[in-house]
Write a structure and sequence with these properties.
InterPro entries: Cofac_haem-bd_dom, PDZ, PDZ_sf. This protein has 13 helices and 14 strands. By secondary structure, it is an alpha/beta fold. The chain folds into two domains: about 280 residues, Rossmann fold (3-Layer(aba) Sandwich), CATH 3.40.50.11550; about 80 residues, PDZ domain (Pdz3 Domain, Roll).
Amino acid sequence: MPPPRPLPLRSLSRRALPAWLVVALVVPLSTALAAPLDTPLDTPLDTPLDTPIDDQARACPAPGQWVTDDGERHSTAALMPELAERRVLLLGEQHDRLDHHRWQLYTLAALHAHRPSMVIGLEMLPREAQPALDAWSAGELDEDDFLAASDWQQAWGFDPALYLPILHFARMQRIPLVALNVTPALRGRLAMQGWGAVPAEERFGITPPAPAAPAYRERLTAIFERHVDLDDDPAGLKRFIAAQLVWDRAMAAALADAARAGNLAGHDPLVVGLMGQGHLADGDGVPAQLDDLGLTDHQSLLPWPPQGDCAAPAEHADARYVLGDESAFQPADPLRLGVLLEAHPDGVRIVSVNEGSVAEQAGLAAGDVIVTAAGVTVEVPTDLNLILRRQAPGTLLPLGVMRDGVTRERLARFPPAS
């Protein structure tokens, strides 16, 4: 058997990007396609390696295989030594997919076996949560204390049970964890006021981002236009793209800082970033910002979800891991109102309402401000997410909705479980 071919490092092709979770700051949007409802936008055996390529092409990739950018298939054992030599690896996810997080844990463990000096970066938490991550890794906090100290529910909002196995792995192996993100408030200031208006120390020394490549700008525009009419909010698109670039740059800067700090300390770590797949697909987002920061030795990895044909997913990555069918273990989708939200001083403002949604049937409209839900004050979109997570199918959710300065109760009626 010939030795495995090294993972190709050539430029990624530009292909269409399907909907993915984009959390933008100032116009925090939510996409009901790749993420739980109303998420703010302010996520078998290998074919033998010596099988002729013509024979490989006649069969779909098997679960457990890696497919690299050149279309070749590799076992984990063959590919991990090459991947472990990189300075930075980016592992993409859809935030609510259990199988994506299992794949991330599996990959982290395989990489750690080859490169014990490792740092794990998390999109899930902002810089302010770093003390909580340090205390967790040191074994000083239990789960409940960590979730409270990191303000997980407000900062992220997705079920922590999806991420705790990874956090426990890092704690067990004493792998440093790094908060990659910044708060929606800081993203909003940078997107709306500009970088010159925010002192460097208030933005953690993060430098302005490289401009979005045309293809990336087109994809972000398409995502924005799915939910907002440009004629109604022409300035919104500019803020949305600016906030997305802040997000990408913040994560890239934290990854680059971690790699640089490790090298200065003589550790030479492998830095692995966990983030939404939209931040790395097609080499845009974080990879492009890493290049601009001078850190070009990075690779992007994505899961390949089960599907009925052999067609590769639209988003390109340096390598994809073929998942098995884990649908039996996937948690049920949370209930959805079917609205797009943004921050508002009195609660959360509805930017748009999906046709035929629970929100439309409840009489909600764009411009309404949700002030309370189930009698609980709603201050940020994640407050509403937490309430919806506890809501049962077939029940009513009372909402305090302000319209034209007057607050009235409206009832959101959720359909029974199918």
